[in-house]
Amino acid sequence: MGGELRYQIGQNAYIKLILHALKHRSSAVNGVLLGRLSGGDSNPVVEIADSVPLFHSQIGLLPPLEIALIQIEEYYGAQGLSIVGYFHANERFDDSELGNVAKNIGDHIHRYFSQAGLLLLDNKKLEALSKGKDRSPVIQLYTRDSSKSWKLIGDGSSRLTMKEPAANIVLLDYISNKKWQDIVDFDDHLDDISKDWLNPELFSS
Amino acid sequence: MVSKTEETQVNRLENQVDNGGGGAWEYLCLVRKLKLRRSDKVLKHGLSILNDSTKRSTLGSEEWTLYEQVAIAAMDCQCLDVAKDCIKVLQKKFPGSKRVGRLEAMLLEAKGSWAEAEIAYSSLLEDNSMDQVIHKRRAAMAKAQGNLSGAIEGLNKYLEIFMADLDVWRELAEIYVSLQMYKQAAFCYEELILSQPTNPVYHLAYADVLYTLGGLENLQSAKKYYASVTDLTGGKNTRALFGICLCTFAIGQLTKGRNKEEKD
């Protein structure tokens, strides 16, 4: 038996997801995580290298999701990255449950990548971010256990860590600059195909 | 629904006001007319007029409309003190008004005092049981508390009386989709298509729901509805074009398996 599986999220992947949720404050949003499995059997790590913000309206519909996943897989496959998980932010602030839609999408990704992780935005931690010096991600990790249900991994276990320890400080900086206005998700892309879901400009300026 | 030209107009005006170019009142009127939700901007620019007595006096009787608009925007931004002040001014001007009463109830709602807000809305409904806004507020309140089945019940009751309210049909459809109750959502979109047969938005949403439901028959009708969206928009809708591809592929997969079975 190897060590316990860990998840490590890169700064840009992390910031994109949170800014996306901030742009659409009054609706549920989701996104997909790209990366690879490394570390071998002794110390397995799912490295989340990038993320793509997906939708902010009607998350429960299949066609836009299928189109997005096909295109994302095609693009990132060429770079040696694959879909390793799913991110979800609930519509209501005080709703900290993982909904059925999120679980179903997670199940689907799990079929192709059995170490897939499900991330849920932790609204309370996000709100407290500007006041504290918390360096841990403002998201909760769920993994699929042997009984095929998604289980919350507690904060204390540090199974989900940040690759760059200062990511939250950078994130706060982006928030105060209202950087969330610039983020493009797949919904925006489908409405206006000239908008790029890869957000190539987001971190350059 | 907001057209592209209206959207560019409002964005241009917003930019102008943000950069101190004037036109705040025109902007606020336009936001109100188009029923947009830009609460942070409305609050900022609305207050700049309300706090300036010369600017305020030029509005005449429109002043009170602005107080109402700013109050609602302030509640949306959780600036409850501002909302309270606006409502107080309105109470003084229009004592005993139902419209101001509605704002008071909304303030309770914004505070999260659900039970008190419910009592306030109920008493307002006793005076006028046909007040559409209050019926909608009650459904929204159920939704805000995470009680989606309560919201569905409220909206269904509302639709029994106000069958022609398309926005409510749409809201109901979206709640059904979020609960993955696709058959019920499909029914709502059928109603919407019947009321506005040339609106591509409803055709597209209906096709998406049918595709999500799956099965050969649903896929075939989904494809037809995607085709009608393409027709209605002159081929400019990307979602519909992708939809046709997805349907064609899925139908191919299903029928391929079927032909093999027949051969076996």
TrEMBL record, chain A:
PROSITE patterns: MPN. Signal peptide: none annotated. InterPro entries: EMC8/9, MPN. One of its GO terms (cellular component) is EMC complex. Residues 7-140 form the MPN domain. Pfam families: UPF0172. Belongs to the EMC8/EMC9 family. This is MPN domain-containing protein. It comes from Camellia sinensis.
From TrEMBL, chain B:
GO terms for cellular component: EMC complex. Keywords: Endoplasmic reticulum, Membrane, Repeat, TPR repeat. TPR repeats lie at residues 166-199. The keyword Membrane applies. It is found in: Endoplasmic reticulum membrane. It comes from the Eukaryota. It is a peripheral membrane protein. Its main location: endoplasmic reticulum. Pfam families: TPR_EMC2. Residues 100-209 form the EMC2 TPR-like domain. Part of the endoplasmic reticulum membrane protein complex (EMC) that enables the energy-independent insertion into endoplasmic reticulum membranes of newly synthesized membrane proteins. Component of the ER membrane protein complex (EMC). PANTHER family: TETRATRICOPEPTIDE REPEAT PROTEIN. Belongs to the EMC2 family. This is ER membrane protein complex subunit 2. It comes from Camellia sinensis. The lineage of its organism: Eukaryota, Viridiplantae, Streptophyta, Embryophyta, Tracheophyta.
